[in-house]
Amino acid sequence: MQRYLLNRIGQAVLVLWAAFTIAFVLLQALPGDALLIKYQNPDMGLSPAEIADIRNSYGADTPLFLQYLNSLAGFLTGNLGYSVQAGVPVVDQLAANVPSTLALAGLGFLAAVILATAIAFLASLAPFAWLRNAIESLPSLLVSVPVFWLGIVLIQVFSFRLKLIPVINPPEALGLILPVATLAVPISAPLAQVLIRSIDDVRTQPFVAVARSRGGSNAWVLSHHVARNAVLPALTIAGVLLGELIGGAVVTETVFGRNGVGQLTQQAVNNQDAAVLQAVVVLAAAAFVLVNLAVDLLYPVLDPRLKQKTGALT
Predict the structure, then answer these.
(1) For 182-208, what is the HEC assignment?
(2) Rounded Cα–Cα distance for residues 76 and 69 (Å)
(3) Under a CB-based contact definition with an 8 Å cutoff, are residues 278 and 24 in contact?
């Protein structure tokens, strides 16, 4: 088990380094120079010598490989550089915006899991074939709904028509309802599809027939014997969906005008703020890696057979 854990941590470090390197190369290949765009503005009245000093302070004129090494060393020590547009440390910007995005993404993911589980259970317990088919078609419908369109529709219905949730300056808890719903609906669709198929597979296993022969109802067998064995594939897809969750958070924050990493990313893209974009990419990669590492470590807990396999690797 210890060797398995070390291998997974080593792979996680490799993924983070690759994400950092690819992001650095791609950002350097972008046309334009954010420093010149900002400081060559005639309204600022800076002389060429002053602009050169500013570029020197950002290390923009050093060789590209040295910029890479300095940036990598900075990330390893917690120094993510300075935002060209805001003129403040990127760490401060992330500290101000990450909690809001974490709350939105965490609640969105939780809502997606609840919605997907409800759809899968209702489909499995449906008494009629037509009703089961109708419930099973829901994920295909939900996954095709664009995030930005859903957000606009929810605002129109619940804010402007029903006037249940104010659009401008709503209370924090109330203001999270529509963004969380917008984020959760598309994420829940693939999760529900995988869970429905997994439940169908597990229900054909002999131990399920034994449980039914002892008089267990469909709901009892589903909750006590099928659900735990069917959750592993859904857990895998849940880890993969994290990337979609982060992308959805960017769009959702923009639609609802919420402060967060999404808004920060949008502003950084508009201003070609490479230091902020680099930090956001590495942060997203780190979140993705940590969640998938946690999913992998949960496998042996949910299925003792996997614990024996990982133990055999040590």
Answers:
(1) HHHHHHHHHHHHHHHHHHHHHHCCHHH
(2) 11
(3) yes
* b (16+ CB within 10 A) / e for 205-225: eeebeebeeeebeeeebbeeb
For residue 153, which of 116, 178, 190, 180 has the smallest C-alpha distance? 178
Q: Give residue-wise pLDDT tens across range 4-58.
A: 778 878 888 898 899 889 988 888 887 777 777 777 777 777 777 887 887 777 7
Question: Which pTM does this prediction carry?
Answer: 0.76
Closest by Cα among 206, 198, 259, 252 to 229: 198
Alpha-carbon distance of 18 to 146, in angstroms, equals 30
SS3 assignment for the chain: CHHHHHHHHHHHHHHHHHHHHHHHHHHHCCCCCHHHHHHCCHHHCCCHHHHHHHHHHHCCCCCHHHHHHHHHHHHHCCCCCECCCCCCEHHHHHHHHHHHHHHHHHHHHHHHHHHHHHHHHHHHHCCCHHHHHHHHCHHHHHHCCCHHHHHHHHHHHHHHHCCCCCCCCCCHHHHHHHHHHHHHHHHHHHHHHHHHHHHHHHHCCHHHHHHHHCCCCHHHHHHHHHHHHHHHHHHHHHHHCHHHHHHHHHHHHHHHCCCCHHHHHHHHHHHCCHHHHHHHHHHHHHHHHHHHHHHHHHHHHHCHHHHHHHHHHC
Structure tokens at 26: 């791609």
Phi, psi of 140 (to 5 degrees): -65, -35
- Nearest to residue 260, comparing CAs of 199, 191, 183? 183
| Closest listed residue to residue 283, CA positions, set 243, 254, 255 | 243
Token pair of 284, please? 């997203």
